[in-house]
Write a structure and sequence with these properties.
Layout (H helix, E strand, L loop, with lengths): L2 E4 L4 E7 L5 E7 L2 E16 L6 E17 L4 H8 L9 E9 L4 E3 L7 E2 L1 H4 L1 E2 L1 E6 L6 E4 L5 E3 L7 E9 L16 E14 L2 E20 L15 E7 L15 E6 L2 H5 E6 L12 E5 L4 E4 L4 E4 L10 E7 L5 E6 L2
Antiparallel strand pairs: 1-14, 2-3, 2-14, 4-5, 5-16, 6-13, 7-12, 8-9, 10-11, 10-13, 14-15, 15-16, 15-17, 18-19, 19-20, 21-22, 22-23
Amino acid sequence: MAKLFLGSVGTVEAFKKKEDRSYELAFVSKTLTDSGINTTISKEDIRGGTGAPIQFSFYHDPAVEITLTDVVFKKEYLEAQLGTEFKNEGSHGYATETVVAEAGKITLKDQPLGLDFGACGGELKYVWATEAGKEEWKTYEFTTGKEITGDFEAGKSYCVRYCKQDPNALIARVTSSIIPAEYMLIITAPVFAGDACSASNGKKAGTITYEIPRFRLNGGSEMAFNMSSNQTISLAGSALAADNTCEMGEQNLYNIVLSIDNYAKDVYKELIVDEDSLKADMVPVVYGLTKEGKVMKIDNKNLTFEPALNGGKFAAGASKITLTGTDISDDVTVAA
């Protein structure tokens, strides 16, 4: 078998639980620059006896830290980090325009809006203007309409800045109670196979997928805009315990699914069917004989039955069992 190695970053799918307990696809990330899943656990050594040698080791406090970095901006990333949601609430935008003044007034292109900062700030109904080519900004108050009165000279051009209605604008209100979002996360990365003597000459051989049932972001947002490079967005958080197992004292953190193309064909050479299951209305019990001589039970989901099973059970008569995706098969006769 060729040597396997991991490369590239793969993709991420994030699902958010709705009130009816179903999941909606929140976002898909296909442009990551890096991704990491780091699992740690604390260990306590139990010592005793002369010289205090280690008698036992006690493991506790497992932690799974996940980091994803994307070069593409998505508003869903900010919603996830800051626990907010972008909404169209008749939101406002900001306008800059050049206006030729009449004596004592200017007329704006759009209706200016006040900035409402609540009880402390009130509604600030102002526009700011300066004579074109200068940086001498003055504040002018407005009431209604698009006309602004003030010490404007007729025929001169003025640069005016003001707040206006923008039907395309979305607003996300970040409050003092920031609670980051929680998602179900699916991270899929490619697995490559190389020649046994030259692993660098590889081609994609399958995928490795991490299923994280509960992923909570650490929260916060750091945006540093640079004129010579793009702003990447990092999503960092932890895997929370999911109570979806029946084992006492154990909770699921994440699953690892490894899918290698033609893996079964490379591993198994023969199927062996338990004779006690070769009866009608019995669930098939099938084993695979590996090329190393080991016998391993194969899940029936990975087998193809001809004729098809009836409710997961055999029907009487001739049957052919095939390891799905391979030419490894076995012809059997099922007793009535």
